[in-house]
Each structure stands twice: as structure tokens, then as C-alpha cells.
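Q: Joint fold for the lines below.
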Amino acid sequence: MEQRTEIANLGEFGLIEQLTKDIEIVNSSTLVGVGDDGAVIDHFGRQTVLSSDLLLEGIHFDLAYTPLKHLGYKSVVVNLSDIYAMNATPTQILLNIGFSNRFSLEALEEFYAGVRAACDAYEVDLVGGDTSSSGKGFIISVTAIGEVAPDSYVRRNGAGVNDLICVSGELGAAFLGLTLLEREKKIFETTGTQPDLEGQALIVGRLLKPEARKDIIAYFAESGIMPSSMIDVSDGLSSDLLHLCKQSSTGCVLYEDKIPFNEEAREFAYKLKLDPTACALSGGEDYELLFTVAQTDYEKIKANPAISIIGYMTETDAGCNLITRGGNTHALVAQGWNHLK
Amino acid sequence: MEQRTEIANLGEFGLIEQLTKDIEIVNSSTLVGVGDDGAVIDHFGRQTVLSSDLLLEGIHFDLAYTPLKHLGYKSVVVNLSDIYAMNATPTQILLNIGFSNRFSLEALEEFYAGVRAACDAYEVDLVGGDTSSSGKGFIISVTAIGEVAPDSYVRRNGAGVNDLICVSGELGAAFLGLTLLEREKKIFETTGTQPDLEGQALIVGRLLKPEARKDIIAYFAESGIMPSSMIDVSDGLSSDLLHLCKQSSTGCVLYEDKIPFNEEAREFAYKLKLDPTACALSGGEDYELLFTVAQTDYEKIKANPAISIIGYMTETDAGCNLITRGGNTHALVAQGWNHLK
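A: Joint structure:
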């Protein structure tokens, strides 16, 4: 039988000690980490970038099909993605968690193992945070801190007319993974049939264990690209592209046939009678980087197979439009995942 | 009738715009605030201090007697207190909130009004965060960022043998405020009798609207005091003093008759048949600064009436002891508020 240590027996400080004992500091800018009132970070000569996200059980994740280790990994990665989306390099995180007495120490250690795996993979330091009991459910709040050379950060508001719209990787797979897992959960609840995830490792993996595009930021630095605007794709391509347009005061033209889609995911979309384009536009949780560059950067962008050019920015009066495969023009609408509805 | 705007009608981005539209940036180090993937802070030549806390409805606060505006104020202040406890000056905060559909826009605006009041009072900028729906309850996570001149931060682990133990202000009142409000809530629930808070403004105020000791940090800078260790009193004097001793590898002697207590609060303690000393030792939520200084700083400390000298550090073998008014010696035990039990 698996061990189950009641957290009440450890007390808060015992729990923190237990959960943070294996943490190693990798960034020399980390002067003080876990275990004091605050963490201290030395950013002499650099600029600091910060981002914070809340992840709530029943809203952002379902523990019926989310392993705690994956959840820990993802909680970190989605925050780091925001730091990369500023063209910065993440260096530290703070982690707050709240949990009910349904969670044992072993469960929290699983979660922290995922957190540590992400910290290792992205070379960031966990430097502090807070643990608390919660009346109900698992509550996660992560704050990521990054650094950037002076004035090299990229905002959402710098795109110019005729700038190329680019996106990293492939879109829509995480939404399909979510759709599959939700379907299998319902089948399990009503019939007791175990999930059939055969051959769906890609889409499930994209949902449960996303990665942030550290490589793209590194490519920008290597090849001397400075995007004019950037955002990470968390709410869906259309919603996030509309953010860039609104904040940059531009319109846009987006080509349906240029939207990058994984073949395996595309086949699964057809199987579920879903439109792959709709999955990419409205699905979200891809954590790819959506950015714009000047046309003069065209050759540099083309040289990287992980980046697709999917359209261009226009005058704001031209509106935000999608050109379909059939050549029709549709206004882009934000149908991102609205968890407030 | 009061206006009630359903948040679902605004959408997440509409809500964020609504809640953050009045935010003004006061720190020149704030390069990018709310509205991008991350905030950008310029800390050239200074060190950055970070702290993050989770505040959960039903665990850390009870909305039956906590006005939302006070809650917003307190959520910020308790985090700033951690930054001051590092001898640093807070400059920015990030705020994540989760809330169920029981909260209207007006309710959230009340909360944000309190957040803004605290930001104004302590001259910090709200630079980002996340808003989300929650299945149940109000969830708050605040991350505070501060700056400190290189290597001027004060940790918990630097106290030496014979250092004086000092504390700002008065202790125990917040716990009495909590005891009073919990009692009045029970009376109201069972008999419908409205709360009798007559003459208890001080203790209720200390609980609902605490302040962080910015003035003490300023005094350190003015008078050239560099504490050897410091912590803020959030879990109760005994628990927090034991943290300093453990991390500094010292013992301590604490004098009961030196513990600062407000007269009004003391009288109320007797009325409730509570021991004022126990309230100070185990109550918590005082947000006073507990620190140690070398004996050579004695005159400088005595010159500030807001600071009490309450004991001294000893060799670790001597243990951590309380000398009672009657002259007896008791081992100090951490009976801080353990919300994991």
C-alpha cells in the first residue's frame, strides 16, 4: 500500500522543509532563496520581468486525468512562457499552493517533483512562496521572474503595418487533448470503461505537459531578430492575435492555410468531427509564441523550420481578417476559452 | 438598490480593463505594468527582493465580518510587511484573484479600491497578475517586489549571541480582534443579535486593517542601524522568535514584562479571560517587525519610542526561554496559528 503521511502531523514549517529540501540554486543572481521573508535577486545591469498566474482545480485542471507531477511541471511552464513572451530569460519562480486535507504529503511531493523537473529543464530557481490549507480543491499561484538586457524586452504593442505575423510550433493539439480526456472521463463516469488513449500520446502530452519556447528566444538572440510585438498563445490564436492588433493599433490578415497543424492532431480532429482551424483559433493552451517582425527579417525567419509565417499586419481600418482556404474573408473573432462564463 | 454587474457579461479582458483602469505608476523603475505578459522593472544597481502569499476565504479571512475594501488593503500590506522584514523597500506588486459568481463587479471594485489605497499609502505599483473564476470562495495571491541597496538586506539567520531582541509597536491586539469578531459572529448566527463592537475599534482595526512598519525601516536607514536578523510577526511572537533562533543557531531569553501591549487591548483580554502574554506569544497577525541588533546599537534603539527591547540572544545550548513576571523560566514553544491542523 502506498504511504500516506497526513500533512497536519508535519505542521506548516515541517511541510515546507520537507517539500523544499532538494531545491538547488542554479542562477548566480539568486542571493537568497526559500526560507526567509523574501527572496533576493541581484539584477545589476539587467531588467527584471515578472509574471504571475493562478491555476485552480475544477477551473484550469481536472485531477481526474491530470497526474500531479505533470500539473507541477505545467504550472511552472505556463508562467515561464509568459516571461519568454517578453523576450526575457526566466531565472526564478515563487510558488504558492493551497490544498485540502484530501492531499497527502506524497501527493504534494509528486506535484513538487514536477515543479523541480520544470525548474531543472528551464534552469530556473524556486526561491519562495507560501503553503496553506484550503477549504476545497487544489490552488496554485506561480510568479515567474526573468531578466532581459536593458530595453530588449518585447511588448504586445509594437507591431507596425506590413509586419509579418509569425508563430512557433503547431497549434490546436492541446485543445484536442482536452476534448479527448473530457470525453473519456464522461465515458468512464457513465460506463466504467477505462480510457482509450491509444495513439493519442501527442495531443494528450501537449495538454498535460506543455513546453515553453525557450529555443525561439535563443534563436532571436543568435540571429539578431528583435520582434516588434509578441504574446504567448494561451487563449487561442484568434484571441491572442487580436490582443497584438488592439495593443499595436493595427489590423491583420491571417491565412488559414498557413496555420501550422500537426498531422496526427489533424486526423484526430476529423475523427471527432472538429474543424482543425477552429481548434487552432479558439482552442488555446498551446504556449507557442505569436510575434511580429519587420519584413526585412523574412530570410532569418524562413531559416528556422520551427517558425511559420501566417499573415501580416495591416492598417487598423482594414480590420482583423481570416482568409480561408477557399479564398473567403471572415472577420476574426475572439472565441478564446472564457472561464468567467 | 445597489448596482450589480455580472462579471460573466464583461469577460476576463473587460474585467481586467475595468479593474485596472485607475492604476497609476509611481516608481520610475516600473517600465511596463499591467497589460502585457509580464511586468518589467529596472533595478539597475539595486537588488530585488520578492515575497508571495496566498489568502483564502474560510482559511485566512471570513467575509462575514471582513469588508472587501479592508481585505484588499490587508492583502497588500501583509506582503509588503515581508519585504520590509528584509530591510527592503517595496516597489511593485502582482495580484492574482479567483472568485466565484457570487461576486459582482461592484464587490471586486471594492476589493480593488482597498488594494489601490494600500498601493498609494506605501507608494507601490500594481504591475500585473491574473484573474480567474473559482468554483468556490475568494482566492487572493499577492507577490510583492522590493529593492534594497546591494547587500543591505537583512535575513533571519544573522543574529549573534548577546544581540538585543527588539520588536516594533504592540503585540496581541489583532488576535483579540479576531476573537471578538468570531464571538460576535457566533452570537449573531445563533440569536440574530447585532455585533457589539462598542469601544473595540483598536483591536478590530488591528485585525482588519493592519499596517506594515515602513517607518521602522526608514529609521534604520536614518540612524545607521543594520539589524543582525529580522522577521515580521505574522504567526505570533514565540513562533517567529523561534524562527530567528533556529536560523541563527542561537538560544534566547525573552522577558514577559517587556512585551509591548496596548492598554485598551490588555483590558479587553482580561474581559475575555485571556492572558495578554499568551495573545502576544501565540496570536499572530501583528505585522510588527521582530529583529536583533548588536548591543552597540542600544542607544539608537532606545531613542525610538516605537521599538521595545524584549530580550537577548544566547548560546544555542541555553535554549529558548521566557522569563515570566514572577521570575520563573519557561521554555518558549511555537503555538502559532497552524492553519494546517
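Q: Anything notable?
A: Chain B has two domains: 7-148, 164-331. Residues 173-191 of chain B form the longest helix (19 residues).
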